[in-house]
Amino acid sequence: MGMEVKIVPDNATLNRVAAQEFHRLAELAIKERGRFSVALSGGNTPRSVYSLLAEEHKDLPWDRIHIFFGDERHVPPNHPESNFRMASESLLSKVSIPEQNVHRIHAELEAEPAAQEYERHVREFFQLKNLGWPRFDLVFLGLGDDGHTASLFPGSAALNDTSQIVAANWVEKFQSFRLTFTFPVLNHAAEVVFLVSGEGKAQILNEVLKPPPKKYPSQFVQPEHGHLLWLADQDAARLLQVTTPSASQPL
């Protein structure tokens, strides 16, 4: 429980550590509950993690693993910007996961119906009643240059959404909708792992890990009964002064 900052020497080590954490949590969840539910992130950093999972973790019981998506661009599944397409090309098409275990957002639909459909699907999968929240075993997240995570962008309406699981979030700077899990979903996860790589993320990572007041969306990801892991390579962490007791030294 609580927050941990783990700094690793380079991107290759970050990929390995993230894949190992996926593997560890999958084995634990399957042993305890018979299945593992994970929400994937888009972006370049997780792509390398997914490729490594496909190459070196084929021995996982993929028939017990259920893949969801923390957010999605409002594009068809074959679109170059689709998070589903990226995950499919780097991981899902290379492991023996049943098709019914891949729970994609139907982002080819109109934004609001797509969000509502995915919400119904998540509720059915987790057998939620009334206003309960799903509890994912693992959520991978990235960190945008503007402090956004998933598709929870600064100034967007979904930042204040405390009733829906999935929001059709209008993002002004892209002039488009994004489909995204809301903060209550992220904060009910058993473990959330932020993947942060490269010197281009050094400034925003330093800002986000500063004490309150909070001003970036990613600072509002704080699992209520779970573990928050910030996994960063040395380039991304070069401005940090890691002084918290839970922080790890470089591996």
- Biggest beta sheet summary: 6 strands, parallel
Strand order of the largest sheet: 1-9-8-5-2-3
Distance between the termini: 21 Å
Low-confidence stretches: 243-247
- The secondary structure category is alpha/beta
Number of strands: 9
Tell me, rounded to a whole number, the average pLDDT: 95
Order of helices and strands: EHEHEEHHEEEHEHE
Total helical segments: 6
- Rg, rounded, reads 17 Å
Percent strand equals 15-25%
Helix content: 25-40%
Shape: globular
Topology:
Blueprint: E1 2-8, H1 11-33, E2 36-40, H2 44-56, E3 65-69, E4 71-73, H3 83-90, H4 111-125, E5 138-142, E6 166-171, E7 176-181, H5 183-186, E8 191-196, H6 202-208, E9 227-233
Parallel strand pairs: 1-9, 2-3, 2-5, 5-8, 8-9
Antiparallel strand pairs: 4-7, 6-7
Notes on the structure:
The chain is α/β, with parallel strands linked by helices and 251 residues long. It is 28% helix and 20% strand. It has a six-stranded parallel sheet, with helices on one face. The protein has a three-stranded antiparallel sheet with strand order 4-7-6. Helix 1 crosses helix 2. The radius of gyration is 17 Å and the shape is globular.
